[in-house]
Design brief:
The chain is α/β, with parallel strands linked by helices and about 375 residues long. Helices cover about 45% and strands about 15% of the residues. The protein has 15 helices and 13 strands. The strands form two sheets. A seven-stranded parallel sheet has the order 3-2-1-4-5-6-7, with helices on both faces. Strands 10-9-8-11-12-13 form a six-stranded parallel sheet, sandwiched between helices. Helix 2 (about 50-55) links the parallel strand 2 and strand 3.
Length: about 375
């Protein structure tokens, strides 16, 4: 127990880089004031380590290579867990679940909750080493964790099929700061002016790093088809690798003949403003998404979405936007064109916003984790 007497939650995560699970951990730890929080990163401080530190949350980086852990550094982590004496250890992602769970048990902590943030375990979308960890975790799931939280319904199904203890699996959906992500007419005007987008141009956007999972090839092929119907459309690509020096991306743009209509924006820190500037946000992912943050962030800003049916995307969007199969540019183009027809209407914008407010707020996520932690038995 910490000095302020709130229950102490120690989070152990594979790393703190620029990823979806890392962002959720940051939001949860900085929002939830019913518990005290601290964080151990198996690897480095990444993007979110300094941000957590600035928010007053203690962060310790072990410098481990998750694929080749050091026994000495693992024991240092055990000592850190023992020293902190948390009420609950919440782990994040497969390596964090395995090594964090083992460290917690060696330190005498039995109230361990694993966290699942993935929905793909096939050979195409998952490295063999990760699949091996999943098989080991499935065997340990009956004894090591008290409960297992998945951010998505799809994740429950996939991990139950992989052999995880079904009675321990529960869903806690990701939550979003609906105060930061909200409709903002001034932000919309600023972003569109910065990118030279006129009122009569349709601005599509995709916030995603350059990664095979995100399938920018599918996105650009679909955009080529959209331009044939909507010549005034523009596409903004936002995220790591979305720059002119990315030769692989440049090749995809050139092959699809869309160079004059694509804006490469790189990484941005003003994502709420970006989402407001868009008419339609597009998720083109082929696999691996569990509960895509960008879809919820766009919808919270009142921006309609066109997306591939991966993870819980269909559950998130429901009837507010348009869903299509992955890896099918014709289907994605059709979904985008349908979204364009509804974009900008007060009814569509309000429906997107209301969906996130009612189902996926930070309040709901924090309450979900609090209930899960409270349900674990101290004698486990």
């Amino acid at each position: 127990m910490t000095s302020d007497q709130r229950p102490h939650i120690l989070h152990i995560i594979t790393g703190l880089g620029d990823g979806g699970a890392e962002a959720v951990l940051y939001r949860l730890a900085t929002y939830d004031d019913l518990h005290s929080h601290s964080v151990i990163s198996l690897s480095g401080m990444g993007k979110y380590g300094p941000l957590l530190h600035e928010a007053g949350i203690a962060v310790e980086a072990m410098g481990l290579s998750p694929s080749l852990p050091s026994a000495a550094r693992l024991m240092r982590m055990v000592q850190s867990v023992r020293r902190q004496a948390p009420d609950v250890v919440q782990t994040w992602m497969y390596h964090g679940d395995l090594l964090g769970g083992v460290a917690a048990r060696l330190a005498g902590v039995r109230r361990v909750v694993w966290g699942l943030h993935n929905t793909t375990l096939d050979r195409q979308g998952t490295k063999w080493a990760t699949r091996a960890i999943v098989r080991l975790n499935a065997q340990l799931s009956r004894r090591l964790p008290a409960r297992i939280a998945s951010c998505s319904e799809k994740g429950i199904q996939v991990h139950r099929d992989a052999g995880y203890a079904p009675g321990k699996l529960t869903v806690v959906h990701n939550g979003y700061d609906i105060g930061a992500f909200r409709p903002d007419a001034n932000a919309r005007q600023h972003i569109r002016a910065e990118w030279g987008i006129t009122d009569d141009e349709i601005l599509l956007g995709c916030v995603a790093r350059f990664d095979p999972q995100k399938d920018h090839g599918n996105l650009l092929a679909a955009f080529r088809r959209v331009l044939d119907r909507q010549p005034a459309a523009r596409l903004a690509l936002i995220g790591t690798g979305m720059t002119h020096d990315n030769s692989a991306l440049a090749g995809l743009i050139e092959r699809n003949g869309v160079g004059q209509s694509v804006i490469l924006c790189g990484r941005r820190s003003d994502i709420p403003a970006v989402m407001n500037g868009l008419d339609v946000h597009v998720l083109a992912s082929a696999f691996g998404e569990a509960f895509p943050n960008v879809v919820c962030e766009a919808m919270a800003c009142g921006t309609i979405c066109a997306a591939t049916d991966v993870g819980d995307t269909g559950l998130i969007i429901d009837s507010t936007g348009h869903i299509c199969p992955p890896s099918d540019p014709d289907a994605l183009a059709s979904a985008i064109l349908s979204a364009i027809e509804r974009a900008g209407t007060a009814e569509a914008s309000a429906a997107c916003r209301a969906r996130i407010e009612s189902m996926f707020s930070l309040d709901r996520m924090a309450a979900g984790y609090a209930a899960l932690w409270a349900s674990t038995s101290p004698t486990g």
